[in-house]
Design a protein that fits this description.
By secondary structure, the protein is mainly beta. The chain contains 2 helices and 23 strands. A 4-stranded antiparallel sheet has the order 4-5-6-7, with no helix packed on it. Strand 4 and strand 5 form a beta hairpin. The longest helix has 16 residues.
């Protein structure tokens, strides 16, 4: 009996000592000071980890990989947030799009108007003609190995363009009536965009759902598989939007520790 109790006590001590017993890692996000932090936890119970990078202008995470843009470079990150590749570029924010399997896909450098892609373990220029797009690119999504989508802002509204990955040629385009910025484009064609008092989730078939927010959304960034970070009120409050097969949930994110 004493031996069984001793084994139980030792086993309990071993479990408590294991550093691996942490909440599950959701992904990565920027905080109000533009520092990149890991997000741990489950729906409605999140913890922001320690700062991994500072002065991050834009960031996105698929759960399998991450991408970030600073004043000087684009960073490709692995699942743990470690840098696996970098590309020196000019200043300004960036837009990111992941492949269907969560691997890095495309990076649009908004300051330079250039598109680069992650291919063969490196970042390289992608086929792209800004004149063909005829507008300011505000959202990006990879649909397949052959196609990607871009939302561009033109005089009078937003347009959704389907592009050929091999040439950057516009295959089709359609106007997005009622859509506004900020806007996030999902791989299945779903658009998430801001209204004065909430968010609109519009499917490719035109079906719409609405979620209330306490203040207008100012930015939308992918922060994990099925998760979107929504920042409101001059970056003072942020929320996690979760996509499920039968709907969406909205949870408040904690501030920086």
């Amino acid at each position: 009996m004493k031996r069984e109790i001793l084994i139980l006590v030792l086993a309990s001590g071993s479990i408590l000592a294991q550093p691996s017993l942490l909440p599950p890692r959701v992904g990565l996000t920027r905080d109000a000071s533009n520092s990149l932090r890991p997000v741990f936890g489950t729906a409605g119970n999140f913890i922001l980890g320690a700062v991994e990078r500072e002065n991050v202008l834009s960031a996105a995470c698929s759960g399998r990989a991450g991408m970030a843009k600073t004043d000087e470079e684009v960073l490709i990150l692995n699942e743990e947030g470690r840098t696996v590749a970098r590309l020196e570029v000019g200043g300004g924010p960036a837009l990111f799009a992941f492949r269907v399997d969560g691997r890095p896909g495309l990076v649009y450098l908004q300051g330079a108007g250039e598109l680069v892609r992650w291919e063969g373990g490196r970042l390289e220029p992608a086929a792209w003609d800004p004149v063909d797009a005829d507008g300011e690119v505000v959202a990006l999504a990879v649909n397949s190995d052959e196609r990607f989508s871009a939302v561009v802002q033109r005089e009078g509204g937003l347009w959704l363009l389907e592009m050929a990955a091999s040439s950057g040629r516009v295959l089709s385009q359609m106007r997005l009536p009622g859509a506004s910025l900020p806007l996030h484009l999902r791989q299945d064609g779903t658009q998430v965009f801001a209204e004065e008092s909430g968010l609109v989730i519009r499917t490719r078939r035109g079906e719409q759902r609405w979620l209330a927010l306490p203040a207008p959304a100012e930015s939308l960034e992918e922060m994990g598989e099925g998760w979107l970070r929504v920042v409101t009120g001059a970056a003072t409050r942020s929320f996690a939007l979760r996509f499920r097969p039968d709907g969406e949930d909205l949870y408040q994110l904690p501030g920086a520790p």
